[in-house]
What we know:
By secondary structure, the chain is an all-alpha fold. 66% of the residues lie in helices and 0% in strands. The chain contains two helices and no strands. The chain is flat, with a radius of gyration of 27 Å.
Amino acid sequence: xxxxxxxxxxxxxxxxxxxxxxxxxxxxxxxxxxxxxxxxxxxxxxxxxxxxxxxxxxxxxxxxxxxxxxxxxxxxxxx
Length: 79
């Protein structure tokens, strides 16, 4: 059975092949504050990611501990 690229894959391959031919060079200007902004964005993203990992790590660890915690036998309390 032949495998075919999905339509979106074919479009992406064609766009990648055509882009060097169709694109023209762009000359732009980056002002001095751009580097500072990019650095702030990077540091904020890293700290936010670390916070999210820490937050969900504790919740995930508690969930896994709950799965492996032995269940109490409450049948003796029913008498």
